[in-house]
Amino acid sequence: MPMKQLSGRIHFYDFRKTFGLELIRGRHVRHNFSRHTHRTLCIGVVELGVRFILCRGERYEVIPGQVFVIPPDEAHSCGSGGEPHTYHLFLITSDLLNMILPKNEKDSYIIKNLVFDDRRQFAQLLNLYTVLTSTETSFCKQSALISTIGEVVEYCADIAEDLRISNNQYDSVKRAQNFIETHYEDSFSLGDIARSAYLSPYYLIRVFNQVIGIPPHIYQQQVRIRHAKGMLAHGISISEVAFKTGFSDQSHFSNTFKKLVGITPGEFIKSI
């Protein structure tokens, strides 16, 4: 995971090749940034302090609990007014945006809300930073990324009508379930499942969540652990079960197993 540090306070993560975004975290930053533009869609939250943004002739004061959005190529200035603030920025490339917006919207969307109050989306963006910088699987990271960023884009671009879920998508969800059930031990992307369901990645997450009640990456974890329980019951070692069910290492397997079952694999073996 490429990372570099500037002045010990601003961290840059380059996920453009893997997930289609750059991630920035500033800690206790006092710097004021003069008028500039981004080539990408910029979504951010302030964890501590206040961030001032001058854009479209308006002055915004962003505080914890709010989300701010800066459209591509839109001139703005920002900073903390001299007081320290901690923030997270997600710089969304066009490749990632194309996975979220409907085809007829991706070249003509208009961001209507630059700053808005939403504690849930604020918390989801903070959690997304944690997930992206963790040892979670790429599938888990991509699912969380598209789901979280998609919600923000849908809200502030006012395109909910185009992304509305209809009642005739059960066949698509069934295809997605079958794909996961068949390939549960493999390393695949959200795009692989979406293609099998004939849906866009973001639309797949929306439909899957509504019909099944959980996102695809959690469903995959449940399928893996279900098979793992059967293997452990037949005397296969924990390390081999971890490998056979597609986990990167035994530690990740054990953590996921305990999260879903409530006990460790070793405790499960003793209980049967």
UniProtKB/TrEMBL annotation:
The HTH araC/xylS-type domain, residue ranges:
174-271
Keywords in alphabetical order: Activator, DNA-binding, Transcription, Transcription regulation
PROSITE patterns linked: HTH_ARAC_FAMILY_1, HTH_ARAC_FAMILY_2
Q: Name one GO molecular function term.
A: DNA-binding transcription factor activity
Top-rank lineage group of the source organism: Bacteria
Gene3D superfamilies per UniProt:
Homeodomain-like (1.10.10.60)
Stated name of the protein: AraC-type DNA-binding protein
Species of origin? Sporomusa malonica
